[in-house]
Amino acid sequence: AEELEIHPDEVREILRMSQLPISLEKPVGEDDDASLGDFVPDEAAESPFDTASLSLRREDVEVALSALPDRERRVIELRYGLDGSQPCTLEEVGRTFGVTRERIRQIENNTLKKLESLPEAQGLKDCV
C-alpha cells in the first residue's frame, strides 16, 4: 500500500475482487443486452486492421509482379512462396527452370533491383 501510495483498505478490496471468478456470460450494459465475453478480445483472431493491411500489401505485390516478365515473376513467386506454396530454395527453382542455382540467384537479385525502380512497386516501399 505504501509503495502504491494508496490506502490499505483499497489494496484489500482490489485483492478480494481479483480472487472472485466472474462469468464471461454475465450480462452487462444498461439493458443487459451484452455479456462480459463480448468485450474480451480474441487474442488468436487477426484484427480487422491487420487483415485489411495484409490484403492491401498482397495487392501491391501482385501489381508490382505483374509488371515483370513471366520468368522473373515466377522466380520471385517460387523463391518467396508468393504463389501460396512454401518458399523454394535456389536449387529447387533452378530445377524448375532447368538452370543452375547460381543463375537463379542472379535472376532473383536483378529482379529485386528492377522492382525497386518500377513505378508499380512504389506501394511496396511503404511496407519495407
Folded structure, characterized:
By secondary structure, the chain is mainly alpha-helical. It has a domain at 48-125: Arc Repressor Mutant, subunit A, CATH 1.10.10.10. The protein contains six helices and two strands. It has helices at residues 8-19, 48-66, 70-80, 90-97, 101-117, 122-125; strands at 27-28, 34-35. The protein has a two-stranded antiparallel ribbon. Strand 1 and strand 2 form a beta hairpin. The longest helix has 19 residues, at 48-66. The radius of gyration is 27 Å and the shape is elongated. The model has no long low-confidence stretch (mean pLDDT 84).
Can I get a quick summary?
With 128 residues, the chain is mainly alpha-helical.
* Helix-strand string: HEEHHHHH
The count of helical stretches stands at: 6
CATH fold type of the domain at 48-125 = Arc Repressor Mutant, subunit A
Q: Approximately what portion of the residues adopt beta-strand conformation?
A: under 5%
Share in helix? 55-70%
- The strands making up the biggest β-sheet line up spatially as 1-2
From the spread of the alpha carbons, the general shape counts as elongated
Please tell me the overall pLDDT. 84
Give the low-pLDDT segments.
none
> Tell me about the biggest sheet?
2 strands, antiparallel
CATH architecture of the domain at 48-125: Orthogonal Bundle
Q: Compute the gyration radius: what is it?
A: 27 Å
CATH classification, class level of the domain at 48-125 = Mainly Alpha
Distance between the termini: 47 Å
Label the structural class: mainly alpha
Count the beta strands: 2
Q: State the fourth-level CATH superfamily of the domain at 48-125.
A: Winged helix-like DNA-binding domain superfamily/Winged helix DNA-binding domain
